[in-house]
Amino acid sequence: MIIAEGYAYEIVENVRDGFQEEAFIARFSDILTKYDYIVGDWGYGQLRLKGFFDDRNQKATFDTKISTFEDYLFEYCNFGCAYFIVKKIGKAPKQVEATASVEESTIEVEQN
């Protein structure tokens, strides 16, 4: 389980070991919390994140449905790139959020 911006995510697909939790957390933006799925792909050493909705979600347009993910992959991603798909499973449990905050505080103190 991955925690980002108060939500829990699980890895659905991880091609060529594309998922790196530290890079995902660093690149994650709160605008992505509205999506049911997040696709991450690597190109030129940089991680790009794009949100997709479940096909049954009323907010989904054709291009933002997870079923069109392969079209996105072929049109916008480098051929053969490492990529991953994570699915939002809900709000993060309070205990996990508190643990993540303590770990972040510890890292900040160690860096100073």
TrEMBL record:
Disulfide bonds join C77-C81. It comes from the Bacteria. It holds the Pfam family YutD-like. Keywords: Disulfide bond. InterPro entries: YutD-like (IPR009370), YutD-like_sf (IPR038141). This is DUF1027 domain-containing protein.
